[in-house]
Amino acid sequence: MAGLQLLVAVAACLIALGVPGAAIGLTLRLRRFWLVAVAPVLSFSVIGIAAVVAPALGLRWSTWAVAAVAAIVAIVASAVTWLLRAPAAQSSARLTWRWAVPIAAGTGIALMLLRALRGIPSADLFAQSFDNAFHLTAARFIVETGSASPWAVSRLGMPEEDSFFYPTGWHALVALVAEASGSPVTIASNACLIVVACVAWPLGVVLLTRTLFGSRTPLLIAAGGVSAGFATYPFLMIVTMGTYPLVASIALVPATAAAAVALAGLGSASVSRRIALLTLIASAPALALVHPSSLVMLAVLSVPIAIVAAVVLARRRRDHARLVVLSTVLYGVLVVVGVLVFRTAIDQPDSPRSSVAQALGEVATSAFGAMPIPIVIAATTIIGVVAALRRRRPADWVGIGMWAAVATLYVGTAGGDEFLHLVLGGPWYSDATRIAAFTPIVIAPLAALGASACWTWLTAWVRRRGAGRRALQVAVVATAVAAFAAALVQSAPVRGVDASLRAAFTPTDNALTSLVGVGPDERKLVRFIEQTVPEGDVIANNPRDASGFIYPLTGRRLLTPYMLTAIDYDREVFYAGIANAESSDAACEIAQRLGVRWVVEFHPDQVLSSDGRFVGIKDISNSANVELVKRFGASSLYRITGCGFGAE
Q1: Total-model pTM
Q2: pLDDT, tens digit (0-9, with 9 covering 90-100), for 542-574
């Protein structure tokens, strides 16, 4: 049943990320592969804009709200395109479209699906990480309230403060898919992850590679394969933090970067600069409303694009050289200011740190975070850099420049002093792991170029050695291709991340993996809560023990839904005093006013469950104010019988 629900949810997500973007792309006169690869980005823009606009107009979150916004955006895009008289995108050679591009995209999609199937053991399971508790909670909140407003969702984290803007593009998509497919938010979230990581990501990588380095068939197919060969993206982010919005936004960057390259008139873009400009403008809301740090990264990646374009233009128009140089310098300064301004207030405390030498070594070998070296990726990337340096075309310098820009951010954040760590990594929580997640965007095209160079050498060698023996030539080439694909998805770091992903999704009572998880005992208790606790009641909890998953799984309200929820005065008094409170005490008055009728404990003796804010309910079983209702293993549900509630 769960498998069928997942298939339906995947289909719903493909429609949600395909149809709105394709409609807008057609009005922007995008064609063929540009239209296919950019459609998910434009669809996310529509979903993000609809999440902001719909509540302001009093509309409930639904497919109709998204369709209405898509229609309006398409009309506006059509009018602007007509006014600018932008020509339709030119397709590449007919044979390239018919064979190379579909095979390239299909290769990446197939290999990524294999990794997803290896990492997610069942359709109805979910990543048991702290951040995912919030993301699933936000999606369930949107489904139940009908509002995907970035200001409404922010109240889940800071209920006692004024609302603030929290990007909800990802959560709005999950809620949309859940409602359209009739599946739980857990299955809808898995479906969206599969579509974003296994479809949108390879499409974007192939488009960026093609835009930078051309349409040779081996190059494009290598790009599709290489897109599935990284440990740092997409699944590492799910394992370590459960940062689904970041994973989604990174998948949108390659196609958007390809538009930036086309706007600069570099590479092998088949779209005009006007279309590229409109595509960039239409794509910006997607990055900003899914995870703004990707918009900052796009600006960083645009610096080498701007520099190379300026050099080319200055050589052609020497009379304008000074203006071009000044404009480029100004843009670079603005990007640096943006990195400083848009730094977050939170620094990831467990971000990997190393020496500058080690960080440089990790960049050179593509072994970020002290992971094992991905031999195929590392080797083809080095070969690709050498090939680009030898050719020295403008787009080759762009590819190398983008790689160097992200490498600088990583080295400064992981191996620099504290000042560089905070400044260069600011927009990404000063976390080298998050920056490493962006590196496949710039490594994949170079690795594909290197693989293409290896292919050229191999085929020439086979022709010389196997002259007149067609069967031998085919066998050698087929073996090499199969070995290349297998080496990508079976490398030590990739297998390690995929195994960790499977562990994160697997319910277990193992102390090493159930610290923040919902193991078999907790799942039994969750099902009991859904059957026993009335919908209007509130359950007091310690979110650090994974009880934050109760709301997205059951819809039952929690006093503290997420570990970063602000503990206001009411919560502080309740948690500190409920165990020993008399009916006239403040803790009991708060319980009555807020409707807190229950207390839940998930594996309370685990290390990560410790938090001084919730120490008052740690030994709640000894309180005369509660009675045990149900216990599975070490996890328990208590009913508050004191404070004037009485036993039922």
Answers
A1: 0.93
A2: 888 888 899 999 999 999 888 777 788 888 888
Question: What is the Cα–Cα distance from 473 to 463, expressed in whole angstroms?
Answer: 7
Please check whether residue 600 is in contact with residue 636, taking contact to mean a CB–CB distance below 8 angstroms.
yes
- CA distances from residue 493 to 229, 231, 329 in whole angstroms, order as listed: 9, 6, 39
Please provide the size of the chain in residues.
648
Q: Give the DSSP H or E segment for 399.
A: helix 394-415
Confidence of residue 95 (pLDDT cuts 50, 70, 90): very low
Q: What is the dihedral of CA 110, 484, 255, 292, to 10 degrees?
A: 90
pLDDT tens digits, 327-372: 677 777 777 777 776 766 666 666 777 788 898 999 999 999 889 9
- Please give the Cα distance from 368 to 231 (Å, whole number): 9
Question: Which of 186-200, 367-381, 490-504 has the highest average model confidence (pLDDT)?
Answer: 186-200
Asked if residue 234 has a cis previous peptide bond (ω within 30° of 0), the answer is yes
Helix then strand count (H, E) for the chain reads 27, 5
- The answer to whether 376 and 229 are in contact (CB under 8 A) is yes
From the list 67, 36, 35, the residue with the least C-alpha distance to 49 is: 67
CA angle 440, 444, 448 (to 5 degrees): 165
Q: Is 450 exposed, middle or buried (0-12, 13-18, 19+ CB in 10 A)?
A: buried
Give the Cα separation of 421 and 411 in Å (integer): 9
Give Cα 34 distance to the centre of its chain.
Answer: 22
CA atoms within 13 A on the CB side of 87: 7
pLDDT in tens, 506-536: 887 654 554 467 888 889 999 999 999 998 8
Pure H helices in 466-514: 470-489, 492-505
